[in-house]
Fold this sequence. Notes:
With 143 residues, the protein is mostly helical. The protein has 6 helices and 3 strands.
Amino acid sequence: MENELKRYTADWIAFNHVYDQLITKNRLTSSLLYVFIVFETHDFKLPLTCLIEETGLPKQTVTSIVNKLSREEKIITFPDSIDKRSKILYLNEAGQEQARMVLAEFRTKELKAAQALGIEKLRSLNDLNEEMLANLKGQVGDK
């Protein structure tokens, strides 16, 4: 079991390395990639608190990225009509274009790799990853 866990960890590091190469090639940071992925998941409009929670990044990092995108005129920030203390973020056309361009390259490469596996193996992989993540979260949450 221990050797298989070491293999799992080594694979996890190798996956990160591959994504890091794509990130570097596109002159991004991993944090900006996470922000784009979460924005895409929410049709490019979501509360700041949701963006922080779903990226898993520190509030300061997310705020810094939002401010940078705002200076580049790629994001619009407006008050939440329900919770006046909260901000709603909207990635405008320029921001969406950048996000879609970056994510399209990632997805194209992921799709080719997934097609080589086949749909059944991909489903199994996803199911096993979900189960492992739930178990690992339980262990990390234990004191």
